[in-house]
DNA sequence: TCGATATTTCGATATTTATAGAATTATTGG
DNA sequence: CCAATAATTCTATAAATATCGAAATATCGA
């Protein structure tokens, strides 16, 4: 994964409606959701939703697949995992990440509070 | 972590220079790097770098701390972990995530062996 | 206090992005 | 083929963001 696609993915997620849509798709799992269902659930006009979905697709975060008249979108989990890996790559310069540094990807629970770092 | 701060964090990372700066800070570990060092390493004017660093700080992705004339920035790993957790929350609607669905958050661990994580 | 260093704030400009109605394209059922 | 449905592309406008030089703000050493 190169910087360019990573930036596109992050930019795609950095928007209220797209983040919400992406999360709905994550929760929907492999079955995905139709564009219209997303549009209606989120209260976003169809043309706007389409614009947002194309950003997500362009960033490879979601896949699309026609099913009759609908177009079903689904989250690409591999892309998300690659994104996370990219951002924490070579964490702490190779020094083993201890709980002390806090640099333990995915080890910390979301709310672990760590205040002062030397 | 609420949607608002998540979007700010994603937007902060969705920019060439800021993503590069953040990655340098991740690699630098708890010791961090001075604003000037980041500016010079990335070939970005000081005023621009300052603008970008304030975006990262505003999103709580980095911390800053004055050390004599320099201001040392360092990555906040807890914030990054929270970010990832938010995006994969309630993945597949609670159905156990198998390798088949690909929906296994944090399956890729950058540099350290993962002990058993719940 | 003065001069040098490190960084941030200001200001003006250029670029990118979001929005949503209208028109267009694709698919299905009768 | 036609009407209905589902989605996308087009178009215009509004809003947010990036850029970087110049000026301002801290801090230090002599």
TrEMBL record, chains A, B:
HTH arsR-type domain boundaries: 1-95
SMART domains given in the database record: HTH_ARSR
UniProtKB keywords: DNA-binding, Transcription, Transcription regulation
CDD domains recorded: HTH_ARSR
Alphabetical list of Gene3D superfamilies matching this protein: Winged helix-like DNA-binding domain superfamily/Winged helix DNA-binding domain
Record-linked Pfam families: HTH_20
Coiled-coil residues: none
NCBIfam families: HTH_metalloreg
Name of the molecule in the record: Metalloregulator ArsR/SmtB family transcription factor
